[in-house]
Amino acid sequence: MILVLNGPNLNLLGRREPEIYGHGTLEELEQQCALWAAEAGLSAHCRQSNYEGQLIDWLHRAEEEGIQAVVINPGGLSHTSVALRDAIASIALPVVEVHLSNIHKREGFRQHSFISAVCIGTISGLGFEGYQAAIRYLAQKIGGHEARL
């Protein structure tokens, strides 16, 4: 099972700055993640929170819940949260960081992520397809099979 975590403000997908984040909603993204995981022979458990502590709690409980890998879009916490970074570093699961927009083409403060250094990879700027790439990669990493497109 893959845990897909979305951080602050991602509940507003489709409404918040669609020129940057796209027109798809969080519900649509979660449905796609479930399909992509199923194609890879896995299941996706999707969660979203605007609260840093909730994301940390989910990461801490992931292994005991049978999670094998994590896709995380920390939103703005990428650029501010040492606590979230430490939570990721504290678990023994592969984690891929995903950003809908290309953070390296954005404002200076968005170009550094505290999270990237403790993830096995970072995907930025591919929209929803970044999640697909992360799920496919993690499926190979944990022994699922790669989705055939």
Please describe what this structure looks like:
The protein contains 5 helices and 5 strands. The protein has helices spanning 18-21, 26-39, 52-61, 82-89, 129-142, and strands at 2-6, 44-48, 69-73, 95-99, 121-124. It is α/β, with parallel strands linked by helices and 149 residues long. Strand 3 (69-73), helix 4 and strand 4 (95-99) form a beta-alpha-beta unit. The chain has a single domain (2-142), classed as Dehydroquinase, class II (Rossmann fold), CATH 3.40.50. The chain has a 5-stranded parallel β-sheet with strand order 2-1-3-4-5, covered by helices on one side. The model has no long low-confidence stretch (mean pLDDT 92).
Topology readout:
Blueprint: E1 2-6, H1 18-21, H2 26-39, E2 44-48, H3 52-61, E3 69-73, H4 82-89, E4 95-99, E5 121-124, H5 129-142
Parallel strand pairs: 1-2, 1-3, 3-4, 4-5
What attributes does this structure have?
Rossmann fold; 149 residues; alpha/beta; 34% helix
Summarize this entry quickly:
This protein has about 150 residues and is of the alpha/beta class. It contains five helices and five strands; from the N terminus they run βααβαβαββα.
Strand order of the largest sheet: 2-1-3-4-5
Q: Domain count, please report it.
A: 1
Based on DSSP secondary structure assignment, what is the total number of beta strands?
Answer: 5
Task: Give the termini distance in whole angstroms.
Answer: 20 Å
Q: From the alpha-carbon coordinates, what is the Rg to the nearest angstrom?
A: 14 Å
What is the molecular shape? Answer: globular
State the CATH topology: Rossmann fold
CATH class: Alpha Beta
CATH superfamily: Dehydroquinase, class II
What's the main sheet like? 5 strands, parallel
The proportion of strand residues reads 15-25%
> Approximately how much helix is present in the residues?
25-40%
The run of helices and strands is EHHEHEHEEH
The number of helices is: 5
CATH architecture: 3-Layer(aba) Sandwich
Low-confidence stretches: none
Structural class of the helices, strands and pairings? Answer: alpha/beta
* Mean pLDDT over the full residue set: 92
